[in-house]
């Protein structure tokens, strides 16, 4: 029937009107696809019959497609109810489950274990695409026989596997550019994707014997639940009136990831481990359930250089580790079962992949179009290189024509005092000091752990001879943070720990609290480490970063250590018991602590790609600080000593011209006697505000030569100063300390450290100090190093009481020691002379009385002030008839008159102190028979060596060489004896 044009026009208008009135969610067509059950089997031929190696079965797979053509939108959905993967068993025609995903076994409440939704939205929507994936938990069980059968199946079909790998590489090459292009569009906000993931990861079951049917222990790795969602900013962001905090929120697209319920368990296969997996913590847990939040932020305005382009924040609430000998033995057994690839295995695998790629590339014939493209690229690259060379040549200055002042920053612009000030200036942590106008943060990583605790258990044997575990140690680290920034010209790292607590649960006090072996006050970060590196080609290298390439800062706050004798003895036995576990070969493949430290040290080495550091700039600057350390020695019954060390500092800088400055400083040190009945509670005290101050400077060869010529030009008089170039300087000062020597304290300390003496012998063998001293003397005698020495030591004062509760004290003040030197050259002999001036003054011995208030009152001087002066001329290098001679010394010294005043009371006090205190201290060494035997053996060998030297000396016809010539004058001795101190 013919239709009039007018009626057709009316129908089109109604259709267009209906199209405009449609809802955005209106679905025009929907296609459903249902697959009730499907399976995939791998078959192998054994003895002319087929056998199943692997069977994959999926049930109730549903798929739907919804189309909305009028909005250019569609939606694809997929659902799966169950999934089972089975492998071959050692029993004939039997299969064992390897992967199981069903509601009965795993306890999932959802209808489907897998749900995927992919939706393309209309153009007017906020998001171009929406992706939603939900995956329920499923169980993966390791079966040794099934895994080996699968591996052997692929080994027998090596050619097919090689072809499959080649096909996968070819497919990857085709899709790589597309994937990167999509990722680039997402990063540049041209493509907006709303992604939602809710994945309950698998829990992997590893049986000890290779199969659950064999029994034994099992280990469960539960990956927990991962949820991911995106937070995208609006397409048009208003930033005109935004504050700095609002900019932090508005300038970033974020991906929020929440990881929960991740855990590791070890138990017996007969235990109810499925029920324990649902608990937060139990006796089977090695790692209880962990909660973590991860936020990835992408900058929507890359032109804002002050803000990082990428930020990654990781926050973990609590990480707990439960360890015991039984669990470590089980882990060791699992390490034996699992094959850990070595670096050689990984390298061999990489080479095999490259070989497959090369073999595949030989079969590919290049087209003429590809050859033309390669020729164009090569021609363009050569043109760019020539253009760059011509641009650099237009500067008119040759790169080799650089003045000496530009080469050496130290010699031309900065003094030694400036360098020391630089050391102090880099002690401030924080990324604010590492950011400059040209050195901005590109990527920022922050990891925060609220609490990391290690709970150690020890086993005990009960009356029924069943081994049970009880809580023993707890190590708690609170507020751990790690911040890393990748900047334009180098990285920066910060690491800190808020609080450290090591507690012994078996030695609880009267109040029921645990015994804290190591603790901190918690007011500041107990440990803080900061490192940064700025390449020398940074425009702000000299102005902002003070020409310092690498900087390392280590700060330690108030640390308290309670050295409980019984607790540390038990800890020593516990660690020794753990070390005796026969660890497997695979456990030895895990890098140890020394390898990790060696690898971390390699990070400080200069890379080949780094630009060269200008001469005089600082290659590395490190600074270490220890605020205070409190060490308390005690036993189960009594408290012995309390040692305090405050203000330990160390600074060092290394220059590019081989110059080095090292400083060390100790503010105070004290030792207190904690016994109740004593007049001498202060065993060690200090009088000044510093105990030790050290400064060592190693000169650069070019630097001190120019400095010497400058000094010679300014001063024509050569008397009283050096005429030889020195290699550096050494300054050392030691403050006044007072030390009380009591036999009771020595005896208690001897008994205290006796159980740990084998650790000391392990680190410092017998005779090591003597060998080191002999080696040092020999090296000093032969060393040609020329150091300016300036030593100022206020020698310690020793107090010798008679007993703890008797006030009689003998005071030995060793006075003050000063050492200085200068160098001269003998024109006639050519010898370089090191002239050392040594002076020891104010040496006295007095009798005193200690009051009840702890105040020392001097009574009478027994030996008045004594002074010793030595003038040492040491030939650093002298050529004689027999060749080059080292260490020839001439010593000229003088000792002032020695005045001794002795009364009956003084003599009585000296005899009593000797009998009740000093003699007991000296007899302690004689009581150690082992040390005496070793000392006698060493003395015997030394005497034998001396006899051999004398034999060679008398039988040799050559002219002897006098190595040491000493001449000391003694002014005299005056002895005054009194019947009474008042006379």
TrEMBL record:
The UniProt record lists the keyword Transport: yes
GO biological process: protein retention in Golgi apparatus; protein targeting to vacuole
Phosphoprotein as UniProt keyword: no
Domain Chorein N-terminal, first and last residues per copy: 15-337
Transmembrane segments: none
Keyword annotations: Transport
InterPro entries: VPS13, VPS13_N
Similarity section: Belongs to the VPS13 family.
Name this polypeptide is given: Chorein N-terminal domain-containing protein
